[in-house]
């Protein structure tokens, strides 16, 4: 039976919190027989996400750009498959999805974890700004192409790994690719992370009648390779490095998480039965986040522009136009 109720953007009081690990966030679920895809699944939070899903019994397909690096990272983890994918290359996305569809398998879990943060201005072959192209448009096309397998699963979840960075900016629908306005890397990051949240809102609205639910999330502050474009000064200002340039241990702070804690909300959104029949919400610390006013100085919560249903529909249409993909569900 399809649940047509709109999930309230308000905490469930799940009993979990910032220190919850990914393994704990499973809630004891056995994922034997489930098929999952985790983009970015061979480094940082994505690697831990892949490991926890696989060790719970799921078969996990990890899209990779560099097989050698991925093999080394994923060695020893059971039920892992690797397939070539470049989110900046539309032809690569289509080929990856077609190989999966040709396998005839359903897709129960899709976690869009790959991303880039605050690079200098780079454009893909289509002229699109790289953060929007990688973090949102590539994943939009991937979900569209994999839609038959998600629908085949009967009950599937799509998880968009966003960020508290969405607080920095909404989506500029007039100039999303910085063709007329000056590029600012953090504004671009914020735009792409807001796009992740809006995509989950609209995908859930359209997909729930097919048994496909969608979620977005902030994983927490974790020092991973995502920060490779940042200077030591920037990392110090964010509280990730000490004055000597050494990483600050998550155990010694309240604002940083370990990788195990950082992957927890992705796992919770993808698997935990507390979210059964729910979707379209932004989560953090293994719970649904509260809505925070635009002028609030709170670091937690979701900004209203990221969960606005009209903006979500507008982004869907923009994404179809930019990718040339008709995703009519």
Topology:
Layout: H1 22-25, E1 35-39, H2 44-55, E2 59-64, H3 67-74, E3 80-84, H4 90-102, E4 109-112, H5 130-153, E5 156-161, H6 185-207, E6 212-218, H7 232-237, H8 259-262, H9 264-271, E7 281-284, E8 287-288, E9 291-292, E10 302-303, H10 309-323
Parallel strand pairs: 1-2, 1-4, 2-3, 4-5, 5-6, 6-7, 9-10
Antiparallel strand pairs: 7-8
What does this structure look like?
- The strands form two sheets. Strands 3-2-1-4-5-6-7-8 form an eight-stranded mixed β-sheet, with helices on both faces. A two-stranded parallel sheet has the order 9-10.
- The longest helix has 24 residues, at 130-153.
- The chain is 36% helix and 13% strand.
- It contains ten helices and ten strands.
- It has helices at residues 22-25, 44-55, 67-74, 90-102, 130-153, 185-207, 232-237, 259-262, 264-271, 309-323; strands spanning 35-39, 59-64, 80-84, 109-112, 156-161, 212-218, 281-284, 287-288, 291-292, 302-303.
- α4 packs parallel to α5 (130-153).
- The mean pLDDT is 91.
- It has 329 residues and is of the alpha/beta class.
- The protein is globular, with a radius of gyration of 18 Å.
Can you give keywords for this protein?
eight-stranded mixed beta sheet; two-stranded parallel sheet; 36% helix; alpha/beta; 329 residues
The main sheet comes to: 8 strands, mixed
Q: Low-confidence stretches at least 5 residues in length (pLDDT < 50)? A: none
Q: How many helices?
A: 10
Overall mean confidence score, pLDDT:
91
Q: How would you describe the shape?
A: globular
- Percent helix, as a range, is 25-40%
Reading the helices and strands in chain order gives: HEHEHEHEHEHEHHHEEEEH
**Biggest sheet: strands side by side, in what order?**
3-2-1-4-5-6-7-8
